[in-house]
Automatic annotation (TrEMBL):
GO terms for molecular function: catalytic activity. Gene3D superfamilies: HIT-like (3.30.428.10). InterPro entries: Histidine_triad_HIT, HIT-like, HIT-like_sf. This is HIT domain-containing protein. Residues 18-81 form the HIT domain. It comes from the Eukaryota.
Amino acid sequence: MTHQYNNQFQGSHEDKNLFARIIWGELLQYRVWEDDDHVASLTPFPNTPGFTVLVPRKRLVSDIFAIDKKPLSALMMWHDL
């Protein structure tokens, strides 16, 4: 059974950062969950078994303390995914 993933990144197509490339499906990944705002996938080369990466579909600033409250809360809501 093949699943069609939502590869929509809410940013510029010129943005080639690692996380945008994961969402676009350009990099090897094992996607385990997604919604309209986030993508969760297992890394193909984990240093810890079962390590899951949660990526927002919209690019956020790098400094966690500078992220607006609403997108940070939405991201943190999935910490026990």
